[in-house]
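Quick one, T. Sequence first:
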Amino acid sequence: MINVGEVLETAVNSLKAGKIYLIEKRLYEGKIIEHLLRLSQEDRYMRFGTSISDQRIEHYVKETIKVGDHIFAIFSADGDIAGLLHMARDMHDKQGFELGISIDADHREQGYAGELFKKAIAFAKTLGAKHIYTYCLSENKAMQALAKKNGLNVMLEYGDVTGKLDLKDQAGFDHLRNLVEFATTEQMMIFDASMQSAVQTYLKNFSTLQNLYKSFTPLFRAG
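Structure tokens:
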């Protein structure tokens, strides 16, 4: 028997795969945690600048990612998060955002980090930001290369690396186009969350009907 719920979920995942979405933490907290937990210890060290346990990753997602932060995700064909960018207000600059990126080991060398970086910069402009920052270890050459490629001025400070980009104001048309684009991605995530909820409700109701059928079948046969 065809499972309609699984078919719908597979179709939605296939449509999302490889695309960037602006997502809400409350809807995708579990998938964000799963993505970060898949990072190796070395990758965690490069992403966070220190060794970090599974428990600290869960704390980071639940407590450090605040309301008002922005999260961009690229999904894989199975519905998991393949790439993630966390954009938060910079601690020392109220007109700036700090970017942190992580990519699943199985989905690297596909340009995902660069796509996430560009999308976040464009979105920061729509919010009126003046600066973009990245902070990483001096040995994190990949992040430094990504920052330089996107126009950030990379500086070595106290053994760590800071990248900074001064943002120019957008022209009216570009600003409007980006606002529409990001509003669309948010609506897609709301649709996706509703679809997931509908699928789960369907599966629950279907399971209930199956159990009722199994309960009553022996009675009909006995009659």
